[in-house]
TrEMBL record:
GO MF annotation, one: carbohydrate binding
PANTHER family cross-referenced by the UniProt entry: RECEPTOR-LIKE SERINE/THREONINE-PROTEIN KINASE SD1-8, RECEPTOR-LIKE SERINE_THREONINE-PROTEIN KINASE
Lineage: Eukaryota, Viridiplantae, Streptophyta, Embryophyta, Tracheophyta
Topology within the bilayer: Single-pass type I membrane protein
Protein name: Receptor-like serine/threonine-protein kinase
A GO biological process held by the record: recognition of pollen
Ranges where the Bulb-type lectin domain occurs: 30-151
Stretches assigned to coiled coil: none
PROSITE patterns (UniProt xref): BULB_LECTIN, PAN, PROTEIN_KINASE_ATP, PROTEIN_KINASE_DOM, PROTEIN_KINASE_ST
GO cellular component: plasma membrane
Residues in Apple domain copies: 342-425
Organism in which the protein naturally occurs: Morella rubra
Binding locations of ATP: K522
């Protein structure tokens, strides 16, 4: 360098630089307030790196003066902290200074303190410095920090700020909104942390929650799944050595100006300074939609922002106030439709234990308990241990969460979120209306969750609610008794025109009640003694049953020798009328057929298990499946059905009743019947629905039966050739093949190897279930020999729904 004593120009330059240096030092020293050096209104303090500025300001459209901190040199003044927010100064006579007790205070024109840091400071010589993180720090001559603005924040959470998360402290409402856009005094809203379970961010309105982020999973807040896609900043939960914890966030790019704040109108928002446009842009804001509003749909309901009716009850729950709910007033929420097994007094009827239903892509409910799961335990097991536990979830980074109170503030996300497993009575679990297994399906169809259908769904289950005590003749449920004359009028005196059909028991007529309701009247032939037995049987049985896939008995009529049963009228008559009529076959497209198969399966399942009475239909066949105006199937004709007691699994009869071709081998040959004989009949019926051919039509064919034929083609991997040609090209190949597979499992020789109806329902509806391989049926004609003593003797249900592994998959 040319700065030497011998060079006068050099000396001058040196002095110039020296003076400039001290001048600049002097200017930059203005980041500090010292005792005896007040800051008057109009003067400001600027942080060393010129990020922030401290001084007096007035909000927009206001003349009140406040001490605040804002970003230095940004054209749009963004105030991040206000001192005397509750006591403005009405003119420009205010002073900010450090008083004799070392505290920072704001004085008005009369020398009256309107705001003070209120710390007790032992040393007299305190200073306050504004740093480049927007923090005003008051320290004593001992260099100890006695107060800092970031510990006494207003409405803004800045990078580097620490928000305490201490369980002992409880909720920390660190930030309070302004009262209005021009009034910094504390408003109705606050923003902070609830440390319970795993910490989460909460926005409060007064004492009530308005929004919450969901629990911190170590990476993101679980209720804000799209935080995953954020590259602008990182959130962190730090643990201090003394045991206290705090949240901070840090911009990925240190030069970025980012801030969170709770706006005066209750919105939490995150802003970023946009250099190119010269203004603040909102990166995100919450509550972003109706579903983000806390518990928008009430308890036990799910909010889904992408649906037109955003609220729906969780599976197994129905609206608490249906009228309000249907009007769109969801605040009442939902209630459980079937008590949990663990909540009931278990009677001698062997009841299935409770299980779990999976809700995918959820914002998990508020207020979980965090459980420590030992190596010999599971989260599910811990939940089942306590009847108070009504749901659980296992989340990476959090662990096992269980809920023992109402499930509140639950939301369904189109993408992301967590799996919530809700505890339901067994009967709820085996009555899925639709596959809600995968995320995508849940989104597309989800009829379970439609408000309009919840009612219907609840009536579905009413059969399991107030059934009469089994075998108690005196407590038979009430069944309306119709007067004979009214039936005569309704059926136009049993005119030929009204006749719908005829069977061994008598004839069936169409009728119309005075109110206009159409009915079907089954009139027993007077001669039939057998018919009388079946008549009684049917009344006792069906009157107790209610399910959407069972035909509804409306009443009966007994007068002299006349005995009649009145049913709801099924305009589309029976399934065989469509299925085996070449002119109508095509009307049953694949969708309808699949719906019919599912409906029959559910109806049968209800009979077998969910009505509490174990009922074996014994005569399931296409002509006993009636179709309503929407082609929904209803199982009818309970004349041959039998009730089983709780522990009875099979029975023997000398009188084998049923229909050739639908009868299982053990029933046809040994008179043994059980739920598995119905499963067999269901299998045959299912294969008929797929093939569009009667099982009897194969009697003279190469394989002598439908089953033999199906097995043969299935075995040769030509199963698609089985599908009714009228729908073969338009059907869903996967569903059709799955149905055929399930059908093959149902018609296996061994009753023990056939699935139960609950397994069937699951297998039909879940694409992800791995199906076992069926054994080749040997009982393909009545003459075949049949040997399966083992299963017959034991008579246990070996295959239960628990054996079916349902693999949940996320939709893509
Ligand atoms: C201030 O007043 C003007 C005119 O009345 C209005 O347009 C503006 O929105 C106000 N600003 C705020 C922040 O209230
Ligand atoms: C305000 O009080 C301080 C001492 O507390 C005093 O030095 C100052 O003169 C007073 N100012 C006025 C205007 O009274
Ligand atoms: C200081 O104490 C006064 C009187 O107790 C109180 O009104 C004021 O809010 C306190 N200031 C702060 C910053 O806590
Ligand atoms: C107070 O602090 C200033 C600047 O740091 C220093 O010059 C002065 O000596 C201190 N006074 C006392 C009494 O400590
Ligand atoms: C732990 O240390 C921090 C920072 O020093 C302090 O703010 C906090 O109050 C301390 N917590 C406890 C429990 O001592
Ligand atoms: C920021 O400025 C751009 C361009 O001037 C404008 O389009 C945008 O609306 C502004 N955003 C806000 C939040 O004011
Ligand atoms: C995340 O979702 C919220 C609404 O829930 C939306 O406002 C925000 O823009 C989204 N952020 C990203 C990065 O997609
Ligand atoms: C909404 O329903 C609740 C009952 O769940 C009722 O108390 C409230 O008055 C209803 N609100 C309106 C606006 O009807
Ligand atoms: C459960 O059964 C016991 C004994 O039968 C009876 O004392 C009790 O009241 C019952 N509880 C309920 C809730 O029905
Ligand atoms: C079940 O949970 C409730 C509520 O938390 C608790 O009071 C009860 O002790 C628990 N019971 C068992 C058996 O753990
Ligand atoms: C049958 O039901 C009636 C009426 O509910 C009841 O009083 C009676 O005890 C029941 N009888 C049996 C054997 O359960
Ligand atoms: C109904 O028909 C029967 C015989 O078919 C007849 O005897 C009877 O009088 C008719 N009743 C009415 C009310 O028409």
């Amino acid at each position: 360098m040319g700065i030497t004593g011998r060079n006068p120009v050099g000396i001058f330059l040196f002095l110039f630089l020296f003076i400039s240096y001290f001048l600049s030092l002097f200017c930059q020293a203005a980041n500090t307030i010292t005792q005896g050096q007040p800051i008057r209104d109009g003067q400001t303090v600027i942080s060393e790196g010129q990020n922030f500025e401290l001084g007096f300001f007035s909000p927009a459209n206001s003349s009140s003066r406040y001490v605040g901190i804002w970003y230095y040199s940004l054209p749009e003044k963004a105030v991040i902290w206000v001192g005397n927010r509750e006591s403005p100064i009405s003119d420009q006579s205010g002073v900010l200074w450090i008083g004799e007790n070392g505290n920072l205070m704001v004085l008005d024109g009369n020398n009256k303190s309107v705001w003070s840091t209120n710390a007790s400071i032992p040393s007299q010589n305190a200073t306050a410095a504004l740093n480049d993180e927007g923090d005003l720090i008051l320290s004593g001559s001992d260099n100890k920090v006695y107060w800092q603005s970031s510990n006494d924040p207003t409405d803004t959470f800045l990078p580097g700020m620490r928000v305490q998360v201490n369980a002992e402290m409880g909720e920390n409402r660190a930030f309070t909104s302004w009262k209005s856009a021009n009034d910094p005094s504390p408003g109705r809203y606050s923003l902070g942390v609830d440390p319970r379970a795993s910490p989460q961010i909460v926005v409060w309105e007064g004492e009530d929650r308005r929004w919450r982020s969901g629990h911190w999973d170590g990476r993101i807040f679980s209720g804000v799944p799209n935080m995953t896609g954020n590259y602008l900043y990182g959130f962190g939960l730090s643990d201090l050595e003394n045991g206290s914890r705090y949240f901070t966030y840090t911009p990925s790019n240190a030069a970025d100006k980012l801030r969170f704040r709770i706006r005066w109108d209750g919105y939490e928002e995150q802003l970023r300074w946009q250099k190119d446009t010269g203004n603040w842009s909102v990166i995100q804001s919450q509550p972003a939609n109706q579903c983000e509003l806390y518990n928008k749909c009430g308890d036990f309901a799910v909010c889904s922002a992408s649906d037109s009716a955003i609220c729906s009850c969780m599976k197994g729950f129905v609206p608490k106030y249906t009228d309000q709910w249907n009007k769109g007033n969801w605040s009442g929420g939902c209630m459980r439709s079937t008590q949990l097994q663990c909540q009931r007094n278990v009677s001698n009827i062997a009841e299935e234990t409770d299980g779990f239903f999976d809700l995918m892509c959820m914002k998990l409910p508020d207020f979980p308990d965090l459980m420590v799961v030992d190596s010999d335990e599971t989260c599910e097991g811990m939940c089942l241990q306590n009847c108070s536990c009504i749901a659980y979830a296992e989340v990476n980074g959090i662990g096992c969460m269980i809920w023992k109170r109402d499930l509140v503030d639950v939301q369904h996300f189109a993408k992301g979120g967590n799996k919530l497993r809700i505890r339901l009575a067994h009967s709820e679990l085996v009555l899925p209306t639709v596959s809600s297994i995968s995320c995508c399906k849940y989104k597309q169809d989800k009829p379970i969750f439609e408000a309009s259908k919840s009612r219907e769904f609840s009536t579905d289950l009413s059969g399991s609610v107030d059934l009469a005590i089994e075998g108690n003749e005196t407590s038979r449920p009430e069944l309306p008794l119709f007067n004979f004359n009214s039936v005569v009028i309704a059926t136009n005196n049993f005119s030929e025109d009204n006749k719908l059909g005829e069977g061994g028991f008598g004839s069936v007529y169409k009728g119309r009640l005075p109110g206009g309701q159409e009915i079907a009247v089954k009139r027993l032939s007077r001669r039939s003694v057998q018919g009388l037995e079946e008549f009684k049987n049917e009344i006792i049985l069906i009157a107790k049953l209610q399910h959407r896939n069972l035909v509804r008995l409306l009443g009966c009529c007994i007068q002299g020798e006349e005995k009649m049963l009145l049913y709801e009228y099924m305009p589309n008559k029976s399934l065989d009328g469509f299925l085996f009529d070449s002119s109508k076959q095509a009307l049953l497209d694949w969708r309808k057929r699949f719906t019919i198969i599912e409906g029959i399966a559910r109806g049968l399942l209800y009979l077998h298990r969910d009505s509490r009475l174990r009922i074996i239909h014994r005569d399931l066949k296409a002509s006993n499946i009636l179709l309503d105006e929407d082609m929904n199937p209803k199982i009818s004709d309970f004349g041959m059905a039998r009730i089983f007691g709780g522990n009875q699994h099979e029975a023997n009869t000398n009188r084998v009743v049923g229909t050739y071709g639908y009868m299982s081998p053990e029933y046809a040959m040994e008179g043994l019947f059980s739920v598995k004989s119905d499963v067999y009949s269901f299998g045959v019926l299912l294969l008929e629905i797929i093939t569009g051919r009667r099982n009897t039509s194969f009697r003279l064919s190469e394989y002598s039966s439908l089953i033999g034929h199906v097995w043969h083609l299935w075995h040769e991997e030509k199963a698609m050739e089985l599908v009714d040609p009228s729908i073969r090209d338009t059907c869903s190949r996967d569903e059709a093949l799955r149905c055929i597979h399930v059908g093959m499992l149902c018609v296996q020789d061994s009753a023990a190897q056939r699935p139960t109806m609950s397994s069937v329902v699951i297998m039909l509806e879940s694409e992800a279930t791995a199906l076992p391989l069926p054994r080749q049926p040997t009982f393909t004609s009545m003459r075949s020999s049949f040997v399966d003593t083992e299963s017959c003797m034991e008579g246990h249900e070996i295959v239960s729904s628990n054996d079916v592994t349902v693999t949940m998959v996320f939709g893509r």
